[in-house]
Amino acid sequence: MTFSALYLQKDEHSFSADVTELDDQTLDENSLATGEVLVRIAHSTLNYKDALAITNRGPVVRGWPMVAGVDGAGEVIASTDSRWSVGDTVLVNGWGLGETHWGCLAEKARLKADWLIAVPREFSTAETMAIGTAGYTAMLSCLAVETAGVKPGDGEILVTGASGGVGSVAVSILSSWGYTVVASTGKPEQAEFLKRLGAASIVDRESISAPGKPLQKERWAAVIDSVGSHTLANACAQMKYGGVVTACGLAQGMDFPASVAPFILRGVRLLGIDSVMCPIERRQAAWDRLASDLDRGKLAELTRVIALRDVPAAAAQLMAGKLSGRTVVDIRLGT
């Protein structure tokens, strides 16, 4: 039998990213697709890391050929691990999927049992993928702010890259928790959308994306940053005393052109957020809070659905800055 997958191939002369028919034997025997659980994927999603891999714009993939897809959700169709049975509905985020292990932009995926989480009963598989790694990372970031002791009355929280996947979910979560959220975006046409998600006000990303002074006027009680580079440096420079900054992305760049001044003069805390290898206990806690706290109406508003065949074009749009919110891939729509 065969199944469809977004298949990435590369050699010293060429690169391709095409929806291809693969056979079950290839899946069973490939060293990049080992695992105890075989899942029929119903939905996946398109993350920034996926787009980097699919457009060959970044060194994401470390084993070739590769099936793309950082996230997936669907039904177990075979398992040699007692924790998972045929018919269970599961989701997976990260763990090197689409990088070192075949991913979930495919009709089938063979996955390690340790990587899986049961889909919360509050969500459909489509909704879990509307959340995806981006939304799950947003919740990890918001929980870090909450755990650090920042309270709604402490002041404004800045969310950078607010029209993107991480940012838009973070805006929704933080506003539902009672925080005053300021959304930074380079897309002024998204202002009303971000306000509907819960942003109290909007700032142009240009105001914080250029090189700035190492210590600036205090404004933010916390920052959720998915951008990096000068944006992250300016966010740190504008923190209130004792404020918290979470860093989870590099849309502007991997560099961090900052000084130690905010950290030693204002006691600013910079917290790194890793979603890829995050321990299963913290993953479960994040998904539990998403199930209880995320407004599903807002989630629907920031989500669009495409077919597997549409993913390469959507990835190019994402890299060009033409997509906002979350993109769900309904694998069942066919190729």
Can you describe this structure?
- By secondary structure, the chain is α/β, with parallel strands linked by helices.
- Helix content is 30%, strand content 27%.
- The chain folds into two domains: 150 residues, Quinone Oxidoreductase, Chain A, domain 1 (Alpha-Beta Complex); 140 residues, 3-Layer(aba) Sandwich (Rossmann fold).
- The protein contains eleven helices and 16 strands.
- Helix 11 links the parallel strand 15 and strand 16.
- Helix 2 crosses helix 11 and helix 3 crosses helix 9.
- The longest helix is centred in the middle third of the chain and has 23 residues.
- The mean pLDDT is 95.
Write the layout of secondary structure elements.
Elements: E1 2-10, E2 15-23, H1 24-29, E3 37-45, H2 48-54, E4 66-67, E5 71-79, E6 89-93, E7 108-111, E8 117-118, H3 125-147, E9 157-159, H4 165-176, E10 181-185, H5 191-197, E11 201-204, H6 206-209, E12 220-225, H7 229-237, E13 239-247, H8 261-265, E14 269-272, H9 280-293, H10 296-301, E15 303-307, H11 311-319, E16 326-330
Parallel strand pairs: 9-10, 9-12, 10-11, 12-13, 13-14, 15-16
Antiparallel strand pairs: 1-2, 1-4, 3-5, 3-7, 3-16, 5-6, 6-8
Helix pairs in contact: 2-11, 3-4, 3-9
- Note the beta-strand portion: 25-35%
- pLDDT averaged over residues: 95
CATH fold annotation of the largest domain: Quinone Oxidoreductase, Chain A, domain 1
- Which geometry do the CA atoms define? globular
The CATH homologous superfamily of the largest domain is called: Medium-chain alcohol dehydrogenases, catalytic domain
CATH architecture of the largest domain: Alpha-Beta Complex
Assigned CATH class of the largest domain: Alpha Beta
| N-to-C span | 16 Å
Order of helices and strands: EEHEHEEEEEHEHEHEHEHEHEHHEHE
